[in-house]
Design brief:
The chain is an alpha/beta fold. The protein contains six helices and five strands, in the order αβαβαβαβαβα. Belongs to the isochorismatase family.
Length: 173
Amino acid sequence: MDKYDTIANSKKAMDSARMAGCTIIHVPIAFEDGHKEISGDFGILQAIKEGKTFKANEWGSAFCDTMKPGPTDLICKGKSGLCGFHSTNLDFLLRQNGIKNVVLGGFLTNCCVESTMRTAYEHGYKVYTLKDCCAATSVEGQEAAYAHTFGMFSIPTTSDEIIGAVQGSPVSA
């Protein structure tokens, strides 16, 4: 997060898009007490269960102060897995609001962001993934996602390019 100034770039992109009239949709992850939604004994979901992380209505599932939803933002409901589409109302929110372009940022780059990017692409959305508004557990994981995955399922871009696009300048991605 430090190398790419992820939080500051995310805030700047979100605020600019909001001011330009874009629909902002937040896709939080949360699990009930005991993480009963998760079965299996391996992988990142098992680590979430063992660590008792992202418990609903607790600090781990709360929005960070910098990225709190605004009064016009939408909040996707039901994310209890890696993909922003699976088990949620995200596709419904996008379709109901006539959204055809999806701009993604978030955590973890090579997990939730990639999974959501792939599904958005497969659902026919034009997907832009913000290279400087995502973070992985390592710089190497982050850079591998940029180099090998982003371009397969999205248009890799930056917060400055998206800000220019929503303010009327063309995106050079």
